[in-house]
Amino acid sequence: MASSIASLPMHNVATLSSSFSVASSAALAGASQPVKSVKLAAFQVRATAGSEEAVRQFALRGFQTKRALKVIAGLHNFDAQKVAAVVTAAEKGGATHVDIACDPELVKLATSLTALPVCVSSVVPEDFVAAVEAGAHMIELGNYDSFYESGRVFSASEILELTNRTRELLPTIAFSVTVPHTLPLDEQVSLAEKLEVLGADIIQTEGGTSASPLSPGIQGLIEKASPTLAAAYAISKAVRIPVMCASGLSAVTAPMACGAGAAGVGIGSAVNKLNDQIGMIAAVRSIADSLGLPSEAASVTTSGASAVAQ
User: Fold this and answer.
1) Which of 25, 120, 157, 278 is the most exposed place for a label (fewest CB within 10 A)?
2) How far is residue 169's CA from residue 166's CA, in Å, rounded to a whole number?
3) How many domains does the chain have?
4) Distances (CA, A) of 144 to 7, 188, 206, 232
5) Containing domain of residue 55, as a range?
């Protein structure tokens, strides 16, 4: 990996996790007690979900209600402080999942900060193993956006090969695969169908980063989301597994994704590019509100975590 928090001394990671929780709580007027209960619930899921199926159900629960909201920290974001900020924003903003770079130390950090299911993203199947051992509940083969600027694209055959390798290594973990928007729409649908056969649990769409809106305001937001919305509609008609619509979404277009057949949405740069913690939480909350998620979505997940632990 180009960068990783593995280079940080272990005591620095632990201190960061602790101090970030305290700082976030102070900023949010006395939220320290919820943070404690969240940490306990996350620990219980990892420690006592003896059944792999229990972990799967914990990770997939939000998709079953068709209102999943995954906040993405970034495939190449190995900055522990920034990841902690995104995880905290997801927790406090009402998301149902958080998606981080595939690094065991980041997983430990994330699960110390939230009771939400923690997903790790990578394009290297072998990297998933250590992250799952560290406590990740779900894996994502995808989030290719960061590769496109350098001209790196992923073919359908390459995605199928990577999916096969991943399932050989981790046959039961909840598994999401992104279908590259660089493929024509009919080929995206064909690939999604094959991924379902290979054992993918969720298909994720993309496309917003390459869209070039011509209009300002609300119309521009819809134009930006149109590639991923179109993919979500077409793929959801062709597969039986849940579809997550991601890339270029906003509070305006997230409900459209669900209307188009998606079981959830993923948001990344709308949150992870912000520098203000309160602004990040507000950005997550705006999407959660647009989807009709409760203001304390994390408490629902915590309840689910407690049930798994029993």
Assistant:
1) 157
2) 5
3) 1
4) 24, 14, 9, 17
5) 5-309
